[in-house]
Design a protein that fits this description.
319 residues; alpha+beta; two-stranded antiparallel sheet; 12% helix; 26% strand; calcium; palmitate
Length: 319
């Protein structure tokens, strides 16, 4: 017995055509269809875009509520069926184009982070700083695993603070998307060095959008090992970050392992990548890779970005 057919809009009432071939479900960039993480391969520097590979773009601004969707090639709303047109069925039989789905609870501008499980952070080389030693505002490019820029970051600070306080300086770090819209802000207050005293531990606040706090990165005191707590908006600990005993990269990467709030098996990593002898000795420009679970809360992904910047200033920014 043959399978039942499907109504055809080009045939008369009661006519049926052969059932179409099944169409695969799911869309591009759906985290639920991404392959699971296998290990923690950190060879970011060798992952370059290949010809023919799909390009992942930042999400475009979503249409405002109440604004009708535009049909392709039309200057107005999607047209409906004419009154009295032949073969017109009831309204329930009409299949409109699916509307864009706005992720629930995702701050504006961070939608793209739901599609990825690793990012690269490259600090720009400042020629004035290289040749004169005069400390300038740090600037970074934030890229996906294909090397495509998704965000840019720039420190905002005054000359006196940068050159007098060095790596301990306070700062505001603004993160902007490719449309030059500020989507994240990192705020670090000034704190003294805390290698021997637990009273001046480092902390960084993460806001997305600017003005709305979504989490904190707090240093945990330990006499030998650098440890941090990744916290939510109410300062509840969500994850832990632990580095090596000596956070220095001598001809190799330095890894800070990400675990659950109670420790256990690593679920991600922040890695300071070895940039070569000349670059490491004569500049303080650094490359980092961040890896986290695909289904991690997008707000915590933004907080991990802040943890990367705090680690850079604390351990790899030359005074």
């Amino acid at each position: 017995m043959s399978a039942p057919g499907y109504p055809s809009p080009h045939q008369g009432p009661g006519s049926y055509s052969t059932a179409p071939y099944p169409v695969p479900h799911g869309g591009y960039g759906d985290p639920n269809h991404a392959p699971p993480l296998v290990g923690f391969h950190m060879g970011y520097n060798h992952q370059q875009p290949q010809p023919g590979q799909p390009v992942m773009y930042q999400p475009v601004p979503m249409p405002e509520y109440g604004v009708p969707q535009m049909g392709p090639g039309y200057g107005g709303p999607m047209p409906g069926p004419e009154y009295g047109a032949p073969n017109s069925g009831p309204p329930a039989a009409i299949s409109p184009a699916p509307a864009a789905v706005v992720p629930v609870g995702v701050p504006p501008g961070l939608e793209y982070l739901t599609q990825i499980h690793q990012i690269l952070i490259h600090q720009k080389v400042e020629l004035l700083e290289v040749f004169t030693g005069f400390e300038t505002n740090n600037q970074y490019e934030i890229k996906n695993s294909l090397g495509q820029k998704i965000y840019k970051a720039k420190e905002e600070n005054d000359c006196c603070t940068r050159n007098c306080c060095g790596a301990l300086r306070s700062f505001d770090m603004k993160i902007k998307d490719n449309t030059d819209r500020e989507v994240i802000r990192f705020i670090r207050p000034y704190r003294c060095a805390s290698c021997c005293c637990p009273c001046c531990l480092q902390e960084l606040e993460v806001q997305a959008p600017p003005g709305t706090t979504i989490g904190y990165v707090s240093q945990d005191w330990h006499p030998c090992v650098p440890e941090f707590s990744i916290k939510g908006a109410n300062k509840e600990t969500v994850m832990k970050l632990e580095g090596p005993c000596f956070a220095c990269n001598c001809c190799g990467d330095v890894n800070f392992e990400l675990t659950g709030k109670d420790g256990g098996k690593p679920i991600g990593r922040i890695s300071k990548q070895w940039g070569g002898l000349i670059k490491e000795v004569f500049t303080d420009t650094d490359n980092f890779g961040i890896q986290f679970p695909m289904d991690l809360d997008v707000k915590m992904k933004a907080v991990l970005m802040g943890a990367c910047f705090l680690i850079d200033f604390m351990f790899f920014e030359k005074d």
